[in-house]
Design brief:
Elements: E1 3-6, H1 8-15, H2 20-30, E2 44-48, E3 64-68, E4 88-89, H3 96-100, H4 102-116, E5 123-127, H5 132-143, E6 147-152, H6 157-162, E7 167-170, E8 183-188, H7 195-200, E9 202-210, H8 215-227, E10 231-233, H9 241-252, E11 260-265, H10 269-277, E12 284-288
Parallel strand pairs: 5-6, 5-8, 6-7, 8-9, 9-10, 11-12
Antiparallel strand pairs: 1-2, 1-12, 2-3, 3-4
Helix pairs in contact: 4-5, 4-9
The protein binds NADP nicotinamide-adenine-dinucleotide phosphate (NAP).
NADP nicotinamide-adenine-dinucleotide phosphate is lined by residues 7-9, 12, 104, 108, 127-128, 130-134, 151-153, 156, 171, 189-192, 211-212, 236-237, 279, 281.
Length: 291
């Protein structure tokens, strides 16, 4: 392995900081009182194939790949063992570090933008636009012709502009649902946009994508989808082949780039987690394995 990442999701997994509906099943999976079944965290990586099983046909030793590890975790290590279905060949124009950041940021962004059903010229608000998912979502949504209003904290706004956001909003100073403006779609990556007000600022056929849904917003969302022309969507990314194909085409064409903030060697992974938890992370934080 050459690179892994520290995402918000890794910190949440380490602390078992999940919405209520996931807490018990994940605790049972990871270990009831302490992590016993999962002892190495890390959910995405990039590296070279060092060995393949007897029945593997898609990869050979030496192939450069990147991969999500899903609930196997295990990316913070020099080697990982994954099913053949997980990795994808690394685009030649990306470094290992850039490729390692693609599964969480790129695929979830691709999924959320697709679910938002963006058409050219539509107005989209991305709440929590400065992280792993948001930085990719801005680039993808702009490519599909959206006018993007990107919401995050002040220190990230220049980055969001440089990624193509038409307008940026510092959520500590302004609430995007109180601007007196409407949106065709909202992608709430951070999981903090106020439910009723977000629904109110959507156009009649607007779509509200919940990236980090709570049970209450899922129930209210189901009701709103049934009783209004608006749709509330809270489907998790399934890491579909067509999302990978579209994302990789955009990456290879240079339309979507992974944003890398800091790099930490494997031995300083705890420090990397502390930095991510500080909230300062812009885009992605990388763990490097180079020996
Ligand atoms: N549903 C799914 O399938 C799925 C998949 C992957 C991840 N997720 C979840 O989605 C969330 C985001 O993932 P990520 O990797 O993009 O996280 P991330 O890299 O930490 O980005 C989240 C961004 O949201 C900003 N933020 C925090 N509070 C905010 C607020 N009140 N208003 C607007 N922005 C705010 C943060 O900035 P500051 O810290 O500066 O405030 C940060 O830039 C995580 O909780 C993750 O677990 C969901």
């Amino acid at each position: 392995m050459h690179a892994a990442t520290v995402t918000a999701g890794d910190c949440e997994a380490r602390e078992l900081r999940f919405p209520l509906q996931f807490r018990i099943p994940i605790r049972l999976y990871i270990g009831l009182t302490r992590p016993t079944r999962v002892t190495i965290l890390g959910q995405e990586l990039a590296g070279e194939i060092a060995g393949v099983g007897r029945n593997v046909t898609r990869f050979k030793v030496g192939d450069a790949v990147f991969s999500a590890t899903y609930f196997r975790f295990s990316a913070y290590a020099e080697y990982a063992c994954l099913p053949e279905a997980y990795p994808r060949l690394k685009p030649a124009n990306l470094t290992y570090e850039e490729a390692a950041a693609l599964p969480t940021g790129g695929i979830n962004a691709m999924h959320f933008v697709r679910k938002a059903g963006i058409r050219p010229g539509e107005r989209l608000s991305i709440n929590g636009a400065g992280g792993s998912i948001g930085t990719c979502a801005i680039q993808i949504a702009r490519h599909f012709g959206a006018e993007v209003v990107a919401v995050d904290s002040a220190g990230k706004l220049d980055l969001l502009r440089s990624l193509g956001a038409d307008r940026v909003i510092d959520y500590t100073r302004q609430d995007f649902t109180r601007l007196g403006e409407t949106f065709d779609a909202i992608i709430d990556v951070a999981g903090t946009s106020p439910f009723s007000r977000s629904l109110n600022v959507l156009t009649a056929q607007g779509r509200y994508v919940l990236g980090n849904p709570r049970i209450s917003s899922m129930l209210r969302g189901r009701w709103a989808s049934l009783t209004t022309g608006k749709r509330v969507i809270f489907e998790m990314a399934a890491y579909r082949d067509d999302d990978y194909d579209t994302l990789l085409k955009l990456v290879e064409a240079g339309v979507v780039k992974s944003v890398i903030d800091r790099r930490y060697p494997l031995s300083q992974t705890a420090e990397a987690h502390r930095y991510v938890e500080s909230g300062q992370k812009k885009g992605n934080v990388i763990i490097t394995m180079d020996r």
